[in-house]
Design brief:
It contains 4 helices and no strands. It has 144 residues and is mostly helical. The protein has a domain of 75 residues. Helix 2 runs antiparallel to helix 3. The chain is rod-shaped.
Length: 144
């Protein structure tokens, strides 16, 4: 039975390993733009002419971008999770196949050892019978 190499290293073990560099960059960019929007909100609040629409708009935009940054960092798509689960199952199957192959090879070695011992035992018994037969012939020849 052919053994397939295990890909356990391909499966991310922690949440930090699941994050790609693109997701981290997207989170940083969204967070920085959200902070800029909150800064604009403060700027409009401190101005002598209160621009209510701009204050509310920049605040809502900053809030939406902050939520987007959170989702970019924490959200795990269903397709990605299913792919990771499939990789885990495949790795478990490979490990099981390797264990079965090991057990099969150990059983084959044990069977070969038992067969070898049986052959050696038969050879020893045959040699003993031949030796005994030769001894009886020698005794008969000496008496005659």
């Amino acid at each position: 039975m052919p053994s397939v190499p295990s890909n356990e290293s391909a499966v991310p073990a922690t949440d930090a390993a699941k994050l790609g560099p693109g997701r981290i960059i997207a989170t940083i960019v969204l967070a920085l733009v959200a902070l800029a929007c909150f800064g604009e909100t403060g700027k409009y609040l401190l101005a002598q002419h209160h621009h209510t629409v701009r204050i509310v708009g920049s605040f809502v935009l900053g809030l939406v971008l902050a939520i987007g940054a959170w989702f970019a960092l924490r959200y795990q798509s269903l397709a990605a999770e299913e792919a990771r689960e499939a990789e885990r199952i495949a790795a478990a199957r490979c490990a099981t196949d390797d264990a079965v192959a090991t057990v099969d090879s150990v059983a084959a070695v044990e069977t070969a050892a038992v067969e070898t011992a049986a052959v050696e035992t038969a050879a020893v018994e045959t040699a003993a019978v031949e030796t005994a037969g030769a001894g009886q012939q020698a005794t008969a020849a000496t008496q005659a």
